[in-house]
Amino acid sequence: MILTNIETVPGKTIVEHFGLVQGSTIRAKHVGRDIMAGLKNIVGGELKGYTELMKESRREATNRMIEEARQLGANAIVNVRYATSSVAQGAAELFAYGTAVRVE
Q1: Using CA atoms, how far apart are residues 22 and 77, in angstroms rounded to an integer?
Q2: Residue 101 and residue 76: Cα distance in Å, rounded?
Q3: Alpha carbon separation from 85 to 26, 69, 89, 95 (Å, rounded)
Q4: Under 8 Å between Cβ of 63 and 23
Q5: Cβ proximity of 79 and 7 under 8 Å
Q6: Sign of the CA dihedral 91, 89, 20, 50?
Q7: What total of structural domains would you count in the chain?
Q8: What is residue 90's predicted lDDT score, i.e. its pLDDT?
Q9: What CATH number has the domain bearing residue 28?
């Protein structure tokens, strides 16, 4: 599956358009990570636990979007975007979306 954040796939022609595809995951904070994040806020630096959580969330949302595109018969997704939103206290959604197409 080809993924791109632009409207076309360079060197390829879009021959079929399937429409919007999406994938999402909702993740809750982890108490252990919150404690470490609180300590890190005092001394500064990267919050590695949260960095890993976001990386896992992006991967899961992207994989779900890809699976939806495959089921439609697409071999590429253009205009890929990511968004986040808070859905509850301590929980957030990571949302991946794009346009499923077939390219040659």
Answers
A1: 10
A2: 5
A3: 9, 23, 11, 8
A4: yes
A5: yes
A6: negative
A7: 1
A8: 74
A9: 3.30.110.70
* Residue 38 to residue 81: CA distance in whole angstroms: 30
Residue-wise pLDDT for 70-87, tens only, equals 999 999 999 999 999 988
Q: How far is CA 24 from CA 5, 55, 88, in A?
A: 17, 13, 15
- Residue 41 domain boundaries: 2-103
What is the C-alpha radius of gyration for the chain, rounded to an integer number of angstroms? 17
Residue 52, both tokens:
């890993």
**pLDDT band at residue 40 using 50, 70 and 90 as cut-offs:** low
Distant-in-sequence, close-in-space partners of 58: CB < 8 Å, separation ≥ 6: 82, 94, 96
Yes or no: say if 78 and 4 are a contact pair by the CB < 8 Å rule.
Answer: yes
> Cα(90)–Cα(29) distance, rounded to whole angstroms?
5
**What's the pTM?**
0.84
Burial class, 74, CB count within 10 angstroms (exposed 0-12 / middle 13-18 / buried 19+)? buried
